[in-house]
């Protein structure tokens, strides 16, 4: 495949940083972005990336203006919506403000960044939008209500976008990621702001123990995940000769979650089919 130019959000660490380095290693060009001072990603600039400050929680006008500035130096072929964080909390205990904060970054931030790039993709009748999903977008997980809600929302929006832009040769894919060893679950990154309710003490304690145990012990290798995602976008390596899927789980843990969800949904359809079909008006 010809050399591509990728725009990646949230590159200060973790998967974003791995994406930039993996893309550069393939000989492609990268625009790496981060919230705040670009000095945070100076190492990526030294490696060969162009760097910009881009906060996905800014207004649509601000984000679109930054993208236009980026486009003055050349086209964009792939957008990777990587920026995000985990707003933890039990469903009832998390406040309305917690949910708003999570959606502002993980969902509305993704929408604004994508909408800023879509006019360019429409004009050139080509482009690929990458969404980073999660097992939490396939099935809910205790203690992650705000986070899982945003990832479920992203699933639906991706499906709509993919169908609406297909005739323009714009493709989109959502990668469903399991637990990969990044700093995502570090106490400095995971937000556990909650209003404790006594009846949930037991569940909250289990969630806290799980997060503490998982932090730094995630089984997934970020570099392996990134290499596969780049393969899929470029149609190379493990993806050579295969059509780009609408969504792709990465990691044995998320594969198990997706498979269990599919099997359970199929079982419901089979067991309740007569009831499900009985709701049409009588002929």
From TrEMBL:
Q: Which UniProt keywords apply?
A: NADP, Oxidoreductase
> PROSITE patterns this protein is in?
ADH_SHORT (PS00061)
Which SUPFAM superfamilies does the annotation name? NAD(P)-binding Rossmann-fold domains (SSF51735)
Q: Which family does it belong to?
A: Belongs to the short-chain dehydrogenases/reductases (SDR) family.
- UniProt keyword Ubl conjugation, yes or no: no
Record has Metal-binding as a keyword = no
What's the name of the protein?
Answer: NAD(P)-binding protein
| GO MF assignments | oxidoreductase activity
């Amino acid at each position: 495949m010809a050399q591509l130019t990728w725009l990646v959000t949230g590159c200060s660490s973790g998967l974003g940083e791995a994406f930039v380095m993996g893309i550069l290693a393939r000989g492609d060009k990268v625009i790496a972005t981060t919230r705040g001072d670009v000095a945070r990603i100076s190492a990526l600039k030294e490696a060969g990336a162009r760097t910009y400050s881009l906060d996905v929680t800014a207004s649509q006008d601000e984000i679109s203006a930054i993208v236009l500035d980026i486009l003055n130096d050349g086209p964009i072929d792939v957008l990777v919506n990587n920026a995000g964080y985990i707003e933890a909390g039990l469903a009832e205990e998390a406040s309305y403000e917690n949910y708003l904060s999570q959606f502002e970054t993980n969902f509305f931030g993704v929408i604004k960044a994508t909408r800023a790039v879509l006019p360019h993709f429409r004009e050139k009748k080509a482009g690929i939008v990458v969404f980073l999903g999660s097992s939490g977008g396939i099935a809910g997980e205790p203690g992650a209500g705000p986070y899982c809600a945003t990832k479920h929302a992203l699933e639906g929006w991706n499906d709509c976008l993919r169908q609406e832009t297909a005739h323009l040769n714009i493709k989109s894919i959502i990668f469903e990621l399991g637990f990969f060893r990044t700093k995502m679950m570090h106490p400095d990154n995971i937000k556990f702001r909650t209003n404790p309710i006594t009846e949930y003490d037991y569940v909250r304690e289990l969630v806290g123990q799980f997060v503490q145990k998982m932090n730094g012990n995630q089984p997934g290798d970020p570099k392996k995940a990134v290499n596969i995602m780049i393969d899929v976008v470029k149609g190379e390596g493990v993806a050579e000769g295969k059509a780009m899927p609408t969504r792709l789980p990465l990691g044995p843990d998320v594969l198990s979650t997706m498979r269990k969800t599919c099997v359970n949904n199929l079982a419901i359809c089979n067991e309740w089919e007569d009831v499900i079909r009985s709701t049409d008006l009588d002929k």
